[in-house]
Amino acid sequence: MEEGKEMKVGLLGATGYSGAVLYSLLKQHPNVTHIDLYGHHKETETAEFLDAAIPAYLNEHLQLKEFNAASIMNDDDVLFFATPSGVTKQLARPFIEKKFPVIDLSGDFRFKNSLTYSKWYNKPSAPDELLQAACYGLAEFNLPASPYIANPGCYATATLLGLAPLVIDNLIIPDTIIVDAKSGVSGAGKKPSASNHYTFINENAWLYKLNKHQHIPEIVQQLQKWNANIPAIQFTTTLIPVTRGIMATIYVKAASNVTLEKLRRSFQKHYQHKKFVRILTDGVPSIKEVVGSNYCDIGFDYNPATNTIVIVSVIDNLMKGAAGQAVQNFNNLFGFSEEAGLPSLPIFP
Ligand SMILES: NC(=O)C1=CN([C@@H]2O[C@H](COP(=O)(O)OP(=O)(O)OC[C@H]3O[C@@H](n4cnc5c(N)ncnc54)[C@H](OP(=O)(O)O)[C@@H]3O)[C@@H](O)[C@H]2O)C=CC1
Ligand SMILES: CC(=O)N[C@@H](CCC(=O)OP(=O)(O)O)C(=O)O
């Protein structure tokens, strides 16, 4: 598709955190001429409600339209879903049947096996035949193979980008992966809860969903595509008192004859042409270096005393972990410049 093509886009979930970020990115996208926002409450379909829902967007006077698959396919060229898990499995069928382009930020279409979803999300899955029509959109590695793109989870993105080169190049012992991941509070969405209450999470750190996090099977599914010998991973998620950001600290035993130089060459080989992955030549990144951007920054080291490789991978959960990667997938799907609509620098300081 030509670079100058003009697109009308639809978005369901603009009143949520990742939907609001997506709106701001699409608004500045050079190929997007019109954005239709869709809602799910009859009583909230007014501009006044939306000004109140996102005070930061006051004066945008955003108006929600009623969600209707037929009119969306008539009025728009592509649809983004920024809705909680369990929503798109009920709404996706007409779009999939008509091969209408969709980018889905939720977990509903990330798995190939419906039993995996029902086990880890504790709810019924979309039907298997619909799951097969979706493709997993880890943008650096998977160019869109179908018009329904399942945007990856935030922790999964940071972890997979940190591990990919070494897994693909067989530089690790496959059954030794341990991931200690930390996330800011916006990762849980806008709905208030006991664990994102200020008095609980301020000056605190809380490890949650121990051995039960829904991104474990998502990560393993993709790792096994790269290397079928990876049996499982040990993976923990800890909520930390920052608004945005994920840090995945990955520990893995090195295969024989691995050196720091070999690791450097592997990261360099896989990421030298990837605009949104920055490999540090020395040291490890911190969360603030990527907040507000679509970058994944990666640093690593090898400790010969323990034969352990440590990789630190950081992203902004709402950008590379959600809305930013969704725009990257949109660009890849329609043949636009991969950077179109995405900020070139993080927020600093
Ligand atoms: N937050 C993050 O960092 C990341 C989120 N994701 C995924 O992106 C999706 C959105 O997450 P997030 O922005 O955090 O969520 P939020 O809870 O902040 O927002 C959810 C949005 O979905 C709308 N919504 C809720 N229920 C329905 C429904 N039944 N039908 C239609 N719309 C509905 C809400 O509308 P209303 O306000 O009117 O109820 C709101 O606009 C989730 O699937 C999440 O897992 C993925 C990666 C990272
Ligand atoms: C801090 C926090 O709570 N983060 C969320 C990540 C949200 C997400 O990406 O979940 P999906 O797989 O449903 O898209 C969590 O750990 O569940």
Automatic annotation (TrEMBL):
- Per the UniProt entry, the Enzyme Commission number(s) are 1.2.1.38
Principal localisation: cytoplasm
Identify the keywords attached in UniProt to this record, alphabetized: Amino-acid biosynthesis, Arginine biosynthesis, Cytoplasm, NADP, Oxidoreductase
> GO:BP terms for this protein?
L-arginine biosynthetic process
Catalytic activity line of the entry: N-acetyl-L-glutamate 5-semialdehyde + phosphate + NADP(+) = N-acetyl-L-glutamyl 5-phosphate + NADPH + H(+)
Q: Molecular function terms in GO for this entry?
A: N-acetyl-gamma-glutamyl-phosphate reductase activity; NAD binding; NADP+ binding
Superkingdom, according to UniProt?
Bacteria
Q: Which GO terms describe its cellular component?
A: cytoplasm
Name the residues annotated as catalytic in the UniProt entry. 154
Return the InterPro entries for the record.
Answer: AGPR, AGPR_AS, AGPR_dimerisation_dom, AGPR_type-1, NAD(P)-bd_dom_sf, Semialdehyde_DH_NAD-bd
Location comes to: Cytoplasm
What CDD domains is this protein classified in?
A: AGPR_1_C, AGPR_1_N
The record places domain Semialdehyde dehydrogenase NAD-binding at: 8-149
UniProt xrefs under SUPFAM superfamilies: Glyceraldehyde-3-phosphate dehydrogenase-like, C-terminal domain, NAD(P)-binding Rossmann-fold domains
The pathway is:
Amino-acid biosynthesis; L-arginine biosynthesis; N(2)-acetyl-L-ornithine from L-glutamate: step 3/4
One protein family per Pfam: Semialdhyde_dh
Q: Which family does it belong to?
A: Belongs to the NAGSA dehydrogenase family. Type 1 subfamily.
Cite the HAMAP family for this sequence: ArgC_type1
Q: What does this protein do?
A: Catalyzes the NADPH-dependent reduction of N-acetyl-5-glutamyl phosphate to yield N-acetyl-L-glutamate 5-semialdehyde.
- Name of protein: N-acetyl-gamma-glutamyl-phosphate reductase
Q: What does the record give as the organism's lineage?
A: Bacteria, Bacillati, Bacillota, Bacilli, Lactobacillales
